[in-house]
């Protein structure tokens, strides 16, 4: 669907649920609901209900629904921070939204020996866990798989004292183009109606009318 078609679908679905008895919305207001719904749809597909998703490739529905937003980039090396973490700049073209996978090119002088660049899939960790992995006089770290954490500005790669990292390949979900009247939606066509459905439910919730709260609950049950 185009955005205009999504607006039309919103109106049809909204009127069907409310039997034409609820206040209407302008096209501008509907577009706002659609953008919020698009963000929620992507977040739900990426993280699921409990924010503990399986590997991206292990969920075929997720791959299919987000395939047009998946991007591969070689981020630019920025430098290192005070802890010795290797910093790469977050991609801005297209804009980074959520990380899927990070592959690091590394060589090693310790076991297992890697004399030329070899690809290692990084493990994502929380930023507060980094300090445990930094090699110091009192903490001689040894781990083969690089670790990765992402801040608002940088991708941080952590390797042990035997490893040198020279580059990374980042697979990520890009920020979708904002929906505007007359424009198009970046998501695959088969997902557009679900985005519309989410937008309608959110529009009904804004009305805070018990009748529409019941309708929202029933529609959610039908869609599950």
Structure report:
- This protein has 224 residues and is an alpha+beta fold.
- It has two domains: 3-54 and 182-223, no CATH class; 66-174, no CATH class.
- It is 33% helix and 25% strand.
- The strands form two sheets. A five-stranded mixed β-sheet has the order 2-3-8-7-6, with no helix packed on it. Strands 1-9-4-5 form a four-stranded antiparallel β-sheet, with no helix packed on it.
- Helix 1 packs across helix 2 and helix 2 (27-47) packs across helix 4 (192-207).
- The longest helix has 21 residues, at 27-47.
- The chain is elongated and about 70 Å long.
Chart the SSEs and their pairings.
Layout: H1 3-18, H2 27-47, H3 60-66, E1 70-73, E2 77-80, E3 86-89, E4 96-108, E5 114-121, E6 123-124, E7 147-150, E8 154-158, E9 163-174, H4 192-207, H5 210-223
Parallel strand pairs: 6-7
Antiparallel strand pairs: 1-9, 2-3, 3-8, 4-5, 4-9, 7-8
Q: Structural class of the helices, strands and pairings?
A: alpha+beta
**Largest beta sheet: strand ordering:** 2-3-8-7-6
Q: Quote the average pLDDT.
A: 88
Helix content: 25-40%
Largest β sheet strand count, sense and barrel closure = 5 strands, mixed
Order of helical and strand elements: HHHEEEEEEEEEHH
What does the overall shape look like? elongated
β content, as a range? Answer: 25-35%
Question: Got a strand count?
Answer: 9
Number of domains: 2
How far the N terminus sits from the C terminus, by CA atoms, comes to 23 Å
Count of alpha and pi helical runs: 5
Uncertain stretches of 5 or more adjacent residues: none
Radius of gyration: 23 Å
